[in-house]
């Protein structure tokens, strides 16, 4: 088998990262889950869908009755489709809980934002940048296709600058690099802001020191046109993520640059748009993984690998009365009570919203394995048994139309700019208590790539098993 890219000059051009080229191997792995399973007396038993769904519904009802709706929550992977994420959240909210979150690797949890965090420019525009500052990203590994775009820009004369925990190895020349532990990144951006302020005779928002490196980056950003300040996964997951964004916004405003996030997953933007965030009084991912739940719904999520909590989160979920895992794989066997086999992206239709806000729908290309079902159908079935209104969708297309169609019933090519925002005014003065943000390496990012043999034989995968991943 050979996997080839869908060519699109506005997105990936003709390129496909190795992560996407070889991840298909996992879809035929012996770890695939092909039928529902329930744990009885510590042993897993295969059951039919009716039995599994009724077991889940009974458990949710009992836990709600005994402990209240606020004891139920959902941890949702942003690698899931728009339709799956929305219906998972709607199911939990239909039970009366606001405990819904996709921010599994985050350390800071703002309660409200003006819009979805996003790239702040088009993907194609990365190739035409003249100046760029990348903060907290192993660009070549975290975002290979974005790196390829910025490499094009560098060949055309773009000055690439970085704030990073280690010397960047991005296969491109860098103008200036500020190398600092993650705990010092707020100070690093404050220093750059101070240098920009000195050049422009303006007052920076935080006590920075004009160092030689900060001055180099400031002068680079103050020159040229088509500029951007881009925040990587480590910046997004940083315990002072809000402060980093606030300083990035100030620097960008003073230098005429845009601000954006390189985004971790295929649907990071989409998850925000469909409300995969706790509502009023709801628990965030960190709180849910600290032991606050009696019932947990895990969508494409393996907390030991996919969350900032790691093994601590796993131990906390063991104390829950019921954990329901929806996954294409036999995942979370240690902590789950029910496994529901859901289709990976190759076996279902669905939608992702990319970093710039482009809406990208797709169809299934192979038949579902065994008794596997699309996750959106599973949530619809659970809602039907629970008697919840608002789940009468006959296709993923109907779910998408419900979410994003305009007044004429047409789904636009991109999300309206009014729903996207990187605005932030948070600025803390202390230092980070967590030395390193939680960042997954390129071949540990999700359950599919972790199960692709070719990817796990690479040097990057082997290194990830023995050392901490740093930005």
Automatic annotation (TrEMBL):
Its EC number is 1.2.1.2. The keyword Transferase does not apply. Pfam families: Fer4_NDSU1, Molybdopterin. One of its GO terms (molecular function) is 4 iron, 4 sulfur cluster binding. Gene3D superfamilies: 3.40.50.740, Dimethylsulfoxide Reductase, domain 2. Its cofactor is [2Fe-2S] cluster; [4Fe-4S] cluster. The keyword Metal-binding applies. One of its GO terms (cellular component) is membrane. Residues 1-31 form the 4Fe-4S Mo/W bis-MGD-type domain. Signal peptide: none annotated. Keywords: 4Fe-4S, Iron, Iron-sulfur, Metal-binding, NAD, Oxidoreductase, Translocase. Belongs to the complex I 75 kDa subunit family. This is Putative formate dehydrogenase.
């Amino acid at each position: 088998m050979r996997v080839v890219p869908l060519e699109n000059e506005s997105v990936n051009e003709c390129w496909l990262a190795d992560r996407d080229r070889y991840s298909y191997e996992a879809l035929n792995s012996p770890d695939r889950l092909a039928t529902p399973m329930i744990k009885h007396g510590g042993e897993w038993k295969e059951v039919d869908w009716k039995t599994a769904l009724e077991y889940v519904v009974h458990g949710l009802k009992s836990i709600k009755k005994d402990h209240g709706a606020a004891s139920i929550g959902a941890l949702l992977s942003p690698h899931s489709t728009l339709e799956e994420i929305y219906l998972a959240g709607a199911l939990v909210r239909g039970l009366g809980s606001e405990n819904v979150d996709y921010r599994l690797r985050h350390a800071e949890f703002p309660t409200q934002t003006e819009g979805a965090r996003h790239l702040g420019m088009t993907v194609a525009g990365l190739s035409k940048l003249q100046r760029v500052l990348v903060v907290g990203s192993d660009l070549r590994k975290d975002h290979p296709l974005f790196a390829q775009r910025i490499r094009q820009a560098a060949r055309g004369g773009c000055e690439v600058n970085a704030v990073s925990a280690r010397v960047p190895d991005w296969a491109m020349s860098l103008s200036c690099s500020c190398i600092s532990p993650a705990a010092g990144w707020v100070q690093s951006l404050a220093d750059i802001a101070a240098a920009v302020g000195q050049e422009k005779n303006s007052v920076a928002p935080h006590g920075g020191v004009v160092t030689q490196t900060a001055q180099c980056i400031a002068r680079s950003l103050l020159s040229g046109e088509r500029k951007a300040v881009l925040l990587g996964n480590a910046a997004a997951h940083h315990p002072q993520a809000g402060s980093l964004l606030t300083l990035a916004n100030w620097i960008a405003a003073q230098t005429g640059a845009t601000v954006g996030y390189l985004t971790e997953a295929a649907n990071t933007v989409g998850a925000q748009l469909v409300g995969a965030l706790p509502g009023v009084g709801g628990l965030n991912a960190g709180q849910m993984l600290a032991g606050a739940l009696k019932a947990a719904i895990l969508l494409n999520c393996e907390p030991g690998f996919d969350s900032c909590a790691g093994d601590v989160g796993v131990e906390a979920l063991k104390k829950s009365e019921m954990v329901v895992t929806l996954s294409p794989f036999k995942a979370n066997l240690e902590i789950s009570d029910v496994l529901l086999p859901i289709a990976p992206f190759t076996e279902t239709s669905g939608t992702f919203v990319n970093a710039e806000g482009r809406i990208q729908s797709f169809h299934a290309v192979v038949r579902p394995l065994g008794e596997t079902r699309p996750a959106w159908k599973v949530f619809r079935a659970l809602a039907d048994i629970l008697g919840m209104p608002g789940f009468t969708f006959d296709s993923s297309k109907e779910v998408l139309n419900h979410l994003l169609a305009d007044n004429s019933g047409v789904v636009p090519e991109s999300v309206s700019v009014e729903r996207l925002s990187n605005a932030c005014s948070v600025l803390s003065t202390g230092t980070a208590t967590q030395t390193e943000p939680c960042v997954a390496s390129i071949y540990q990012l999700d359950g599919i790539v972790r199960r692709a043999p070719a990817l796990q034989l690479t040097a990057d995968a082997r290194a990830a098993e023995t050392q901490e991943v740093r930005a």
